[in-house]
Amino acid sequence: MGPVPAVAAIRLAVRTALADHQPGDLVLVACSGGADSLALACATAFVAPRLGLRCGGVSVDHGLQDGSPERAAEVVALLRRRGLDPVGSVAVTVGRAGGPEAAARTARYEALDHFAERYGARCVLLGHTRDDQAETVLLGLARGSGARSLAGMPAVFGPGGRYRRPLLGLPRAATVEACAAEGVQPWLDPHNADPAYTRSRVRHRLLPELAEVLGPGMPEALARTARMLREDTEALDEWAAREYPACEHAEGGLDARRLAELPTAVRRRVIRLAALRSGAPAGTLAASHIEAVDALVTGWRGQGPLQLPGSVEVRRTNGRLAFGASTPPARPAPTRPELTGATSP
Question: Does the predicted TM-score (pTM) go above 0.90?
Fold first, then answer.
């Protein structure tokens, strides 16, 4: 692509992602200091003022490596030099639920939510690229998670469309070229090359092998597949949302007879929607959970109650699926993430 075209392409992607914003809105860039997020921050610092927007940045310190607080402080200083304001770092404690990658992701989004709410940000921009999307599709394929997982990462998600990924249509190489053109030195996260992490193995071993066997256009093809599957998934989700009221039982929960009349793809989405409304977290509600609940409709043999993530219990009783709370184990009181290095609101 070349350095100058890469900078222009990233700036155009940011401008497109912010097209629905109003003058005065605050845009935040989540920046780790890696090439993807650093190129995004530089582009946003250029584009936002020209749209009448304010631009800030936040770096999340996961505390997983030696020197991570100092590195977060360096990112904050760099963002300030590029004219972003407010900027700050958020220190988080990464748990163990769902594995190290999932736990870090959960902690990261909680911190970003906290920072965005503190400063009243209209949206938070994330630096995921087309290559990240391809990796996500392959990971979903390995899990056998169905179309929702194969649809990859959405370009816009979160409450009110808070999170946006402007770079999903661009290759990772473009961000490296843009950083060189902007005169900034990205940080190389050793975790990204650590074979202990599944995504790292996909990135450095599986994708190159696929490109050698099937051709160099694999990341683009996988990202295109994700985009088409997302369109199909969103259409089915809308169908399920329309059917949901008709499936509600007068005594609460869902009417098993009405559910059984729906196509499988729609029925399972209605069940998923009921589980989410009952408190099951979307990030841990897997296809296997939904299939087990679906068996209460299509293969009812007097099975006992099922336990879903988020301490949600599902049982079939008197022709309906009842969703309720199970008794969760005692847990320590949560602590709010520590905010450091931020300018005042």
Answer: no
